[in-house]
Amino acid sequence: MADQNESPEAQEMAAAQDPAAQKNAQLLGLLHRLFGAETFTDVEEPYGLLTATTTRERIHDIIAGLQQDQELQLNFLTTMCGMHFPEREGQELGMVYHLHSLTQNIRLRLKIFFPIADPVVPTLTDLYATANWMEREAYDFYGIIFPGHPNLIRILNVEDMDYHPMRREYALEDGTREDKTDLFFGR
Amino acid sequence: MAVNDTLEGTRKIVEEAEVQRPNLHPLAPSVNDFNQELTTLNLGPTHPATHGIFQNILQMDGERIVSGVPTIGYIHRAFEKIAERRPFYQITPLTDRMNYCSSPINNMGWHMTVEKLLGVEVPKRAQYIRVILMELARITDHLICNGILGVDTGAFTGFLYLMDEREKVYEIYEEVSGARLTTNMGRVGGMERDFNDVAIAKLRAWLKTFPAVMAEFEKMFNRNRIFMDRVVDVGAISAERALNYGFTGPNLRAAGVDYDVRVMNPYSSYQDFEFDIPVGTKGDTYDRFMVRNEEIWQSLRIIKQALENLPEGPYHADAPHYYLPPKQAVYKNMEALIYHFKIVMGEIEAPVGEVYHSVEGGNGELGFYLVSDGGRTPYRLHFRRPCFIYYQAYTEMVVGQTLSDAIVTLSSMNVIAGELDA
């Protein structure tokens, strides 16, 4: 088991020797050069994967730019999914994009957050054919709307459903029952 | 031909096809009344040739497929939603039921994701045992796919040969975990049980007999004229389109891209083993079949290496807070009983963080994206299911081909409904 009580200095030393951390620093430098340093906020490296938050206005340009970039070739959209944080005022919904460069073996995670009242995100179907069903899934589960998507209908749930079930306000179990509280089920 | 899965797109393609085609017969319908000429064929949801619950609404011009709309969601069980309310150990049964043809891979992939989040280091022996089990699972997955591809082209014999071998692998699983299909054999930090002598004896016996059966199966199909007529140049996809569609695994490698998670991001000691990545050239059904056959041989190589070099030592990490003790220990040992309760009741809180971990599943990169807010359950869990990602390319691959081509293309893609719908 990794020692989590290590001092910050020791952790920094370990990061300097880690080739993955160096790779991430290079990638971040390139991102800043291509799209401007102010575009990315909350830059982190959880478990070695470079993560950055950007805005929905820029996300399409960034992913298109990374796809066309000859040096990095971040041209594989591994996956994307929606998220919901009800307590974050004005930034309730989010989309997470995982990109991968198959030649350089670099992974990048990009996130955007936007208000639940205006859940509109640019579509990536013009860049990646694979984005088609992933966006339909995000629409189905979170109600995120992708203007320009060729066929934005529900994918896994029934079509006459009138809510988006992965949002946090929909409890999995019947909230009125008292015999199934978290206390008894360890949740 | 561009494929658009909307009705307007369908009509446009049909109109273009109508204009391009010369009117050969004087009685043939004119360009304008294409509605009378096209047949709408519902392939599925429960068609015997679709190997699962998929619906494909195909527009047929005689025997040719003009366009199609795939519809999924028939066995959607809301795994991602359920996972938000369950402690980590209670999620393992969900992962087992995704790709049920190779459930150990899903299972190990999930445990590795949790280990990454918790920072648990797995001992070498457990890693090697996992490699053996995952490669066995890959073999059974490919055996089913290739055996059924044979059935779809009219050859039942190969399927029978391979099912027999699959049963023998299931007996090894049974020895290790007690279950055959949804094995649930991993634990956070290692394995539930060690590889016992009976399991090793069974594995060694199987490793001796299986290559002959596999060679005979290959002899039956690889250069078979009838089989090749049915599968060569059928359902082809270029490497560029395959990457754009997010293909991974054998389907991508058949198109000529040597991407394999085991090599690119090695997990569970895969860097210790020598194996090749088979690639195809054209990305057609024949290439997919051959890549899977070759991968079976490569998996056998890995299993042999892992079995020969199986390190001695513990089969699980010394992490009592996370490792669910074996049932026998729970009956006899007070500490084990306490931790058993703590873990099963979900008392253990995970650190805050987000993890993406991927393994090479039977069909491609199987990824787990786990967001933890420090609670006892994941805040958000997203599965990158390879089947879900590449099944949307199916209609593009079969447009312009015949219905019988569509069947073999579907079975060679190895779409598993449980993984598609999750």
TrEMBL record, chain A:
Entry keyword NAD: yes
UniProt keyword list: Cell membrane, Membrane, NAD, Quinone, Translocase, Transport
Give the subcellular location.
Cell membrane
SUPFAM superfamilies per record? Nqo5-like
- Which Pfam family name is an example for this entry? Complex1_30kDa
What's the domain of life for this entry? Bacteria
State the annotated membrane topology for this chain.
Peripheral membrane protein
Catalytic activity annotation: a quinone + NADH + 5 H(+)(in) = a quinol + NAD(+) + 4 H(+)(out)
Report domain NADH:ubiquinone oxidoreductase 30kDa subunit positions.
53-174
**Could you say which EC number(s) this protein's record lists?**
7.1.1.-
Q: Does the keyword Transport apply?
A: yes
| Entry function | NDH-1 shuttles electrons from NADH, via FMN and iron-sulfur (Fe-S) centers, to quinones in the respiratory chain. The immediate electron acceptor for the enzyme in this species is believed to be a menaquinone. Couples the redox reaction to proton translocation (for every two electrons transferred, four hydrogen ions are translocated across the cytoplasmic membrane), and thus conserves the redox energy in a proton gradient.
> What is the annotated quaternary arrangement, including any partners?
NDH-1 is composed of 14 different subunits. Subunits NuoB, C, D, E, F, and G constitute the peripheral sector of the complex.
Family designation = Belongs to the complex I 30 kDa subunit family.
Name the record gives this protein: NADH-quinone oxidoreductase subunit C
Which species is this UniProt entry from? Answer: Hymenobacter sublimis
What broad taxonomic lineage does this protein's source fall under?
Answer: Bacteria, Pseudomonadati, Bacteroidota, Cytophagia, Cytophagales
UniProtKB/TrEMBL annotation, chain B:
Enzyme class comes to translocase
| Coiled coil, from the record | none
In this record, what's one Pfam family? Complex1_49kDa
The domain of life is Bacteria
**Which Enzyme Commission numbers does its entry carry?**
7.1.1.-
Its main subcellular localisation, reduced to a broad class, is membrane
**Domain NADH-quinone oxidoreductase subunit D as annotated: residue spans:** 152-421
Provide this UniProt record's keywords sorted from A to Z. Answer: Cell membrane, Membrane, NAD, Quinone, Translocase, Transport
- Catalytic activity line of the entry: a quinone + NADH + 5 H(+)(in) = a quinol + NAD(+) + 4 H(+)(out)
Compartments where found? Cell membrane
The record, for Gene3D superfamilies, names: Cytochrome-c3 Hydrogenase, chain B
The membrane-topology field of this record reads: Peripheral membrane protein
Quote the subunit structure annotation. NDH-1 is composed of 14 different subunits. Subunits NuoB, C, D, E, F, and G constitute the peripheral sector of the complex.
Which family does the UniProt entry place this protein in? Belongs to the complex I 49 kDa subunit family.
Function per UniProt: NDH-1 shuttles electrons from NADH, via FMN and iron-sulfur (Fe-S) centers, to quinones in the respiratory chain. The immediate electron acceptor for the enzyme in this species is believed to be a menaquinone. Couples the redox reaction to proton translocation (for every two electrons transferred, four hydrogen ions are translocated across the cytoplasmic membrane), and thus conserves the redox energy in a proton gradient. NDH-1 shuttles electrons from NADH, via FMN and iron-sulfur (Fe-S) centers, to quinones in the respiratory chain. The immediate electron acceptor for the enzyme in this species is believed to be ubiquinone. Couples the redox reaction to proton translocation (for every two electrons transferred, four hydrogen ions are translocated across the cytoplasmic membrane), and thus conserves the redox energy in a proton gradient.
The entry's protein name is NADH-quinone oxidoreductase subunit D
Q: Which organism is it from?
A: Hymenobacter sublimis
